[in-house]
Design brief:
- By secondary structure, this protein is mostly helical.
- It has a single domain, classed as Hypothetical protein af1432 (Orthogonal Bundle).
- Helix content is 52%, strand content 2%.
- The protein is built from ten helices and two strands, in the order H-H-H-H-H-H-H-E-E-H-H-H.
- The chain has helices spanning 12-22, 26-47, 56-65, 88-98, 103-110, 119-124, 139-148, 162-169, 174-187, 193-199; strands spanning 151-152, 158-159.
- The chain has a two-stranded antiparallel ribbon.
- Strand 1 (151-152) and strand 2 form a beta hairpin.
- Helix 1 runs parallel beside helix 3 (56-65) and helix 3 (56-65) packs across helix 7 (139-148).
- The N and C termini lie far apart (39 Å).
């Protein structure tokens, strides 16, 4: 798949085809693509509560593609490289860039981890990433990053309440807690119970 125009945003069908193309196993596809669908549902729920000032199509594409780099971390035996999981964002960004997708779409991959990774985070934590800022800069990036915090691809996959995520992010410092609180204030809290029931995944 090649996209010539930097203005083109891929369709849902094109995005699903990319997941199917790069997923190494059916299990990996189900895990990652379902998570992306959930993040998209959360983001669109939050969008419905705000004036339509954000690019809805861009938010949807970013939600559905943000974790596509996870597939690059599966080894030949079908096992996920958890040690280098932090790299899934930059791997996804590079993958979409190589496919000719717009930069504004690829950035959702590398700019959604945690509440945003700074250059200082990369250096201080000795993260296996190119030294750079990976923070969500546009409103669309901020919304996708925020929506992503409410679902985890753990075993089993789990929905996270605002309180649960806030408690977990404390270990990364007061600045991360404050950044998450600002996102909650801006976008509000999603109603996760219907999604938890629909996907039959626990809400913690």
């Amino acid at each position: 798949m090649t996209v010539d125009s930097a203005l083109v945003i891929p369709t849902d069908e094109q995005i699903r085809a990319l997941h199917e193309r790069f997923a190494p196993t059916e299990e990996a596809f189900t895990l990652v693509y379902t998570h992306c669908l959930i993040v998209c549902a959360v983001a669109e729920q939050l969008l419905d509560r705000h004036p339509p000032t954000l690019d809805v199509d861009l938010v949807r594409a970013g939600s559905l593609l943000h974790d596509i780099g996870v597939y690059r971390l599966y080894g030949a035996a079908g096992k996920l490289d958890q040690k280098n999981y932090i790299r899934h964002g930059v791997l996804g960004h590079a993958l979409l860039r190589d496919l000719g997708l717009p930069e504004r779409v690829g950035r959702f991959c590398s700019h959604h981890t945690g509440v945003g990774l700074t250059r200082e985070d990369v250096l201080r934590q000795c993260l296996p990433l190119p030294v750079d800022d990976y923070t969500a800069d546009t409103p669309e990036e901020q919304l996708v990053l925020y929506a992503d915090k409410f679902h985890s691809k753990t075993t089993p996959p789990t929905f996270l309440t605002t309180a649960s995520y806030a408690a977990g992010v404390r270990r990364f410092g007061a600045d991360k807690v404050a950044r998450f609180a600002a996102l909650v204030e801006r976008f509000g809290e999603p109603d996760l119970l219907p999604l938890s029931r629909h996907y039959r995944q626990p809400l913690t």
